[in-house]
Inverse folding.
């Protein structure tokens, strides 16, 4: 009798543990993307964009610097 | 003869931005439901507002100094700072809408933070209209400065105080914690702070560029 009670108890507990595990572990993230290594494509393209932007920014910075120098000379 | 040299803070900006883009995508983040991978928006959406607030504050400070000294160089600073701040504000709204669509289900909700930010930016946009409608330079400067201060005073309660007094979908409002959400995620803090610093100094860099262009144009107008 006691063992049956115990079995019932275990039967009740185990599924709930499984359910609990499922509800916390399965959060969808970009794991597949990382497994395939494709996330690096995204990062790489963003780095290229950022590099281009920074080059542009520095060029504008330099151009303004030169103009300022000319301005000072002409004064 | 002085040669062009990249200042140290510009180099720092570049390094921080690279760290944000690379680290922002590759460093692991906490696994949370609904947010999923979009939690990385935190690295790009939040710094927009920080950059915007810094430049708005710089603008209002310049306006106060202009009213105090009547020196037009402060007026130039206020205008250019406000322009760049507005630009970052618009970017913040657009990125926020995309994020909202992914996590809350719509591009726009009646969340107090969203509506109030939109109202605040509209109030600020009237600044440009006001300035362009005036011909006289001193009148333009003075009214612009007064209006700028007014907008700032309206903006602060709109986005910092009122949303916190009601429930909001944003973290940091009602019962929502802001940075407590990321207490356990040390990795995220690293990138978030770098991103905030990087975008703030990028904003400052853009502001100085626009300001210098404006001064050059002014000098040229005086010659012609």
């Amino acid at each position: 009798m006691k063992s049956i009670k115990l079995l019932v108890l275990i039967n009740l507990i185990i599924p709930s543990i499984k359910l609990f595990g499922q509800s916390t572990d399965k959060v969808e993230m970009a794991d597949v993307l990382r497994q395939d290594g494709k996330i690096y494509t995204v990062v790489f393209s963003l780095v290229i964009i950022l590099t281009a932007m920074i080059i542009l920014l520095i060029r504008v910075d330099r151009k303004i610097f030169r103009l300022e120098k000319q301005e000072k000379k002409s004064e | 003869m002085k040669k062009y040299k990249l200042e140290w803070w510009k180099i720092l900006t570049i390094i921080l931005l690279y760290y944000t883009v690379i680290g922002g995508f590759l460093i692991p983040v906490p696994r949370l439901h609904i947010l999923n991978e979009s939690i990385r928006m935190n690295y790009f959406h939040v710094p927009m507002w920080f950059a915007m607030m810094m430049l708005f504050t710089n603008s209002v400070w310049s306006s106060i100094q202009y009213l105090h000294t009547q020196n037009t160089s402060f007026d130039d600073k206020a205008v250019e700072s406000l322009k760049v701040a507005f630009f970052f504000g618009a970017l913040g709204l657009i990125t926020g809408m995309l994020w909202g669509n992914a996590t809350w289900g719509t591009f726009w909700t009646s969340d107090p933070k969203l509506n109030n930010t939109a109202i605040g930016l509209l109030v600020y946009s009237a600044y440009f209209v006001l300035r362009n409608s005036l011909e006289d330079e001193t009148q333009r400067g003075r009214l612009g400065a007064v209006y700028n201060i007014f907008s700032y005073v309206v903006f602060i309660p709109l986005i910092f105080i009122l949303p916190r007094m009601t429930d909001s979908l944003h973290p940091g409002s009602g019962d929502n914690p802001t940075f407590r959400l990321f207490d356990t995620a040390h990795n995220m803090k690293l990138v978030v702070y770098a991103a905030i610093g990087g975008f703030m100094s990028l904003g400052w860099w853009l502001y100085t560029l626009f300001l210098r262009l404006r001064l050059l144009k002014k000098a040229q107008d005086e010659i012609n």
Notes: Chain B has a mean pLDDT of 89. Residues 124 and 151 of chain B are 6 Å apart (CA to CA). Chain B has six helices and no strands. The helical segments of chain B are 8-26, 42-69, 72-103, 112-132, 137-165, 186-223.
